[in-house]
Amino acid sequence: MSVFLLQRLGQALVAIFGVMTLVFFIQRLTGDPTYLLVPETATQADIDALRRSLGLDQPLVVQYVNYLWDMLRLDFGTSYVQNVAVTEIIMSRLPYTLQLTGGALLVAFVIGLPVGLAMAIWRRYRATNLLMGVVLGAQSMPTFWSGILMIMVFGVWLRWLPPSGSGSFSHLIMPSIALGLLSMATYARIARSSILDEMSKDYIRSARARGVTTGRLVGKHLIRNSLIPVISISALEISQLLAGAVIVETVFAWPGLGQLTVQSVQARDFVVVQGIVLLGAFVTISVNLVADILYSVVDPRIRKGGRA
């Protein structure tokens, strides 16, 4: 088990280093942020002075080494635009993104898994065709479009929910549903396929022949043995929810990290973008690491394969 964990930790560290390097160099391709920070009446001397104060006058290699050293010290720097510590800016927006992602994940789990189970267990009933249509519709609709439709219907026409902003639970409902619809459809499909695969195995047919009820089969065998694909997709879905939050937060004017990312990219606020991307990469890699550990708990054969 220890060798398995060390292998996964080593892979995680390599991935984080790769993300750090890509973020640094790709941002520098977007242009010099000093031209966006100075007033129109600024002289070339003013621009050069600002560039020196930000450390952008140094060679790119020197900037990269300084950047890596700062990351090792967990020093994410100070925003070029707001002149506030990046950590403070991110922490002020993080609770909103956590609320939105948690709400979307709840929507995906609470609706997706039971729908997938129903489509597998009662696949011969006509009602499952309707469920499959709902799942396919949710999977094919872009997040921004479902968000706009919900704003028009429930926010503008019916006036049941606030169309944008934050401040109460009602503000969270539509963004969570818009962000969670695609994940809900994915969970439903994966759960259905995994359960159907288990139901075709010999031990299920033997249990049915002995008179074991469907409820007992589901509770004792099917759910546990179908967990690995669900755990695998959960790690990917959490990453997708964090990425999709950029679009949803922009559509609903939700003041989270997604909206902050868009604003920082437009302003070329390199240090803020670096901090947000690194936080997202750390969360994604950590979630995948936890998923790998859960695989080994659910199915010890994966852990033995890791030793090999």
Task: Outline the secondary-structure elements.
Layout (H helix, E strand, L loop, with lengths): L1 H27 L5 H4 L6 H11 L5 H13 L13 H36 L5 H14 L2 H15 L11 H31 L2 H8 L4 H12 L1 H25 L5 H11 L2 H29 L1 H8 L1
Helix pairs in contact: 1-13, 5-8, 5-11, 5-13, 6-8, 7-8, 7-11, 8-11, 11-12, 11-13, 12-13, 13-14
How would you sum up this structure in a few lines?
With 308 residues, the chain is an all-alpha fold.
What does it look like?
The chain is mainly alpha-helical and 308 residues long. The chain has a domain of 174 residues: Orthogonal Bundle (MetI-like fold), CATH 1.10.3720.10. It is 79% helix and 0% strand. Helix 5 crosses helix 11, helix 8 runs antiparallel to helix 11 and helix 12 runs antiparallel to helix 13. The longest helix is centred in the middle third of the chain and has 36 residues. The radius of gyration is 24 Å and the shape is flat. The model has no long low-confidence stretch (mean pLDDT 81).
Which descriptors apply to this entry?
single chain, about 300 residues, mainly alpha, MetI-like fold, 14 helices, about 80% helix, flat
